[in-house]
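Usage example:
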Amino acid sequence: MGIITCIEDLRRLAQRRVPRMFYDYADSGSWTESTYRANQLDLQAIRLRQRVAVDLSRRSTASEMIGQPVSMPVALAPTGLTGMQHADGEILAARAAAAHGVPFTLSTMSICSIEDVAAATRQPFWFQLYMMRDRDFMADLIRRAKAAGCSALMLTLDLQVLGQRHKDLKNGLSTPPRPTLANLLHLATRPGWCLGMLSTPRRTFGNIVGHAQNVSDLRSLSVWTAEQFDLTLNWRDIEWVQQQWGGKLILKGILDAEDARRAVDSGAEALVVSNHGGRQLDGAPSSIAALPGIVQAVGDRIEVWMDGGIRSGQDVLKALALGARGTLIGRSFLYGLGAMGEAGVAQCLEIIRKELDTTMALCGVTQIEQIDRNVLWGDASGSSTSSAFS
Ligand code: GLV
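Running the assembly step on the lines above writes:
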């Protein structure tokens, strides 16, 4: 591959370098993948308003997310099995994020453990948690996140049951991969990945194996979620989490205005408008389509962030224009990681930052706080923007 200029280049490279079952795990949506596709398509459909003759000499993409200074309002989303896209993937991504001045969120379902990432980085990171039946294990995870100096807890609300992803079933997703003939033949086509994996001890769920009761060999994400995730999750449980944690709380997976109001009442610092990257409720609206209604419902009583479909700085700008104060990227950074490890995540962040900076300039804005609906074509000038975004 020649010079890398955009996230799509990183995606193509990752597809060549990461074993199929892990590339597919990251790159799929549930069932027909209609929501997964809508996340990107609806962002692409938004048009920007070109402005000229504005003084662009002093520009900055710097901002804050929950009071934390960020070089741009983009955080790395919690993604499961990140350490299977590349050996020690969570450590590498956390380092790239810290170097770039953006937050990294470690998933409960990570390969590198909370302690692994804390030992390998100096910048505090955020920790993502699922509501699980085993409250002792949850309390222990929260305690471990505190001990590791994590600066926010992100509770995922939209995955009590797992949306079916056909490819994971067809590929026999497991970590580490089962040594079947077909898997071994395929892995032989991914020598760089294999070498990396042979040089690290981290090949299964680091936060869970050896910590949760009765879990020693955790191969299947779907078995774990079916057995462990708490179907009774309700808003009172969020109070319990908050009591255990006592720090900044972010609620992820809100797609409805009514739920967003409940999130405000919970006292959380931020909510993430999210359909889990189209991996849960297939048929749900795209995140960007759901965003304006949620912003309208909660105003500035809570920070509203958005994830789903962001593959460029232009996408970040569009989310901010429709009222998000921050964004999360998942697949975009995973592609970078799978393509080139830490350097690939760094490149992903640099691509998005540059795109955001240049696109802000072309829209005639120089600071993140200036971005609002005025940068959208059709909104400010009176002609029509797609009704999905009004
Ligand atoms: C886990 O969060 C997943 O979407 O697979």
